[in-house]
Amino acid sequence: MLRVKDIMTPDVITVSPETEILQAARIMVEKRINGLPVLDSHGKVVGILCQSDLVSQQKSVPIPSLFSLMDGFMPLTSLKKIEKEVEKIAALTVAQAMTHKPTTVSPETGIEEVASLMVDRNFHTLPVVEGGRLVGVVGKEDILKTLLPS
User: Fold this and answer.
1) Edge to edge, what strands does the sheet with 35-39 contain?
2) Global pTM exceeds 0.85
3) Which of 16, 68, 114, 146 has the maximal Cβ count within 10 Å?
């Protein structure tokens, strides 16, 4: 059975929470990668920045819909959700746009489990962590490669 360690990319390009969004976007485009693990000053994975996080910056500010119930107005969108959307849209640094506390896998995780995570939770890139340290990343493209003959 194939494991993450068999297909992961061990040489990982990372960014810090303080990295400017434009610099992170440039890295993603130039290196043709979907996700960047975000490491704090101690080398701990604190987030992941994916292309979808950057694409969200092109969205417009969400305007909550209202409906009337017994002469009162009820918002259909929570204020917390709106605040998060606005923060991502206006992000200047990676910390403001990244997904905090990302799901990670270990080098020993089976490919089937990774595929399930990617499909069920719509992940494209997962950091690979061993002993609290980032040792690689695994992406959808890595999974696809396992389907091709050697």
Assistant:
1) 35-39, 45-50, 99-100
2) no
3) 114
